[in-house]
Design a protein that fits this description.
By secondary structure, the protein is α/β, with parallel strands linked by helices. It contains eleven helices and 18 strands.
Length: 349
Amino acid sequence: MTIDEQFMHRCLQLAVVGAGHVAPNPMVGAVLVYDGRIIGEGYHQQYGQAHAEVNCLASVQPNDQHLIAESTMYVSLEPCAHFGKTPPCADRLITEKVKRVVIACRDSYAEVDGKGMAKLQAAGIDVTLGVLEKEALQLNRRFFTYHQQQRPYIMLKWAQSADGYIGETEKNIAISNAISNRMVHRWRSEEAAIMVGTNTAITDNPQLNNRYWPGLSPLRVVIDKQLRIPATHHLLKDDQPTLLFNCLLRKIHGNKEWIQLKDDIHFLPQLLQALHSRGMQSVMVEGGGQLLQSFIDAQLWDEARIITNTALLLGSGVGAPILKNATHSEAPIQLQQDSIQVFYRHTTA
């Protein structure tokens, strides 16, 4: 591992601390190094507040500030070049006369996309691009999918028995354990939206919020084409913001919005376009089986997280979705009897 890679690893470690707090901005970490010694660190902590580079520079102690102009700034994403919620980070690095900037990956957002690097180079700063690029792209896969594919990043999630069933017919049954459930709520805190279909909404009467982990709850998205969900269910009764995609009406009542589908058959592109237009960078699809399989069959998914209760045999019930074109990631996570596997959709690109 090179020296540049070592310090970029630290940038990525810092960046991920912002998960669940910075969207729709990307997660970014920054490290300032002088002669092999870290003199500053920072990460983007909260949407609308200072970016990683600014926090990094602010962390430099008074007795090290004279070293900034002779230091290297490592940053996990190309510094911004435009005025948004905050001033351009590229301008700040130029003002501070940072000697060298090492960047993991380019920012595909149209307002940045190469402009940050161009500013730095025009100011005479030595710029290196592509250090741990693959890892940096993976970290902000939601951000890049949203901007490059014009849709949210789609994560599928389900829990299944050891013999491949996700539930019993017309009956709610707990499959995963309490530890796994806590992890699921952590996942919810990291995604912009969460989605279920009609049968799951009726049978399970879910709340679809984040109760077991610090952080925000995702926007609830429900497919209820014929408006069959009872008004007494959580999704309609409580005060949590909810989008309800249906074929019958369009209206807004309080924090509930009914969005009418133009085409019942090709509804997935419609709902993804609606979520994209609302700035939702990611959506976690939690069921049921029919909705999950619809995303798989349409090849409109990016990641799948599957929890298998290795000690539970149901014998019959609702069959688990069949994943296609899937690539394993790391080894399964074992939480007592639950085995959690992560898959990514295999693409030829």
